[in-house]
Amino acid sequence: RERGERETPFSLESDVVEIFLSKYLNTAMDLLTIVLLVVVVALLVVLIRDKFVTPANPFTTATIPESGDPSVKELTMYSLLAPPEAKVTHSFSPGCTRLDLFLRAAGLTYEAKEPDFSEAPLGKSPYMRHGDNLVPDSHYCMQYLTNTFAEGKTHLGRVRLQLSATEQMFTTIINRICDESSYNAIVTFRWINPEFWDTTKRLYFGDMPWPIRAILPPMFRKGMYLWTRGQGIARLPEYKIVAQTKEDIDALSSILGSKRYAVSNDMTPADTTLFGTLDQFLNESTSLYGIPEYARSKANLVAYHKRMREEFY
To answer: Which tens digits make up the pLDDT trace of 81-119?
Structure first.
């Protein structure tokens, strides 16, 4: 060192620490950069697959059982059960209510449980377990029960199974109105409409622990929005959805007319569909643009719903 310059104590140690920190900080920054690049690439892959890639086989490979062993009596229905404070008869799902009513009218003994979606054949409810068979969807469950317990019979319990051509035509119309048009409207109003969302969130998720209650509702709501948007109904102005739903109610009232049941004076499978949808319209706890009130203005629909509840519930 030059004359007069004092040596700084610990300078060697300081230099070593500085070199060490510089080297490993640079290494850490390089690792962080790599991690960020991996995350960005992964997000791009997910985005591309989600937006641009269609599966080679978009259809499910699941096999739906057509019938089972009639000697097996253990039968379990997995259904979205409504909470006690709800006004609906069985469930917020028209399909779940449909299957529940069919089982009651058929005189079959069964147990109702909350669904386990990890085992649900199509990932949705209702579904049913009979012996080793898992059967999805209310319509397929009803077909399965008919094939299993009513082969060669005209009735299964109270349900008449053999229909005339006219009765079958009206059954198909009721199914299309309830399962497609009215159902999509119900989903849109409950899950997309901000006025009803708080009620839906409380009834569906209110008894869940707080962390789950904070995460799941917006996820489910976004999924419902994408579905109804893709189907097309959520693209319509609200007043058009309301008008369309009132037309559905008018059609159902006209088909029922003065008959005791949906398509005749005997109970048929069409009654399970009609009751499942009317139970949603007539028992909504929120106005929904006046649709429940409009349904209640149809005296024959109200009387029919009351008769069915008294007979089977």
So the answer is: 887 777 888 898 999 999 999 999 999 999 999 999 889
Which of 41-45, 197-201, 263-267 has the highest average model confidence (pLDDT)? 263-267
Confidence bin at 56 (pLDDT 50/70/90)? confident
**To 10 degrees, the CA torsion angle through 49, 53, 58, 62?**
-30
Residue type, 13: E
Measure CA of the first residue to CA of the last residue in the chain; give whole Å.
101
Closest CA to 295 of 311, 273, 275, 309: 275
- For 301, phi then psi, to 5°, come to -70, -40
Strand runs labelled E in the chain = 75-78, 111-113, 127-130, 133-136, 155-156, 159-160
Sequence-distant (6+) residues with CB within 8 A of 197 are 190, 191, 221
What phi and psi values does residue 308 have, to the nearest 5 degrees?
Answer: -65, -40
Q: Are strands 127-130 and 155-156 parallel, antiparallel or unpaired?
A: unpaired
Q: How many CA atoms within 13 Å lie on the side-chain side of 292?
A: 15
- The helix/strand/coil state of 140 is helix
Distance between CA atoms of 124 and 215, rounded to whole angstroms? 20
Largest CA distance in the chain: 118
| C-alpha span between 203 and 180 (Å, rounded) | 23
Angstrom distances, CA of residue 198 to CA of 30, 88, 174, 290 = 47, 18, 31, 18
Quick one: 239 exposed, middle or buried, by C-beta within 10 A (0-12, 13-18, 19+)?
exposed
Cα Rg for the chain, rounded, in angstroms?
29
Q: Which residues contact 259 (CB under 8 A, 6 or more apart)?
A: 265
| Number of residues that this document lists for the chain | 313
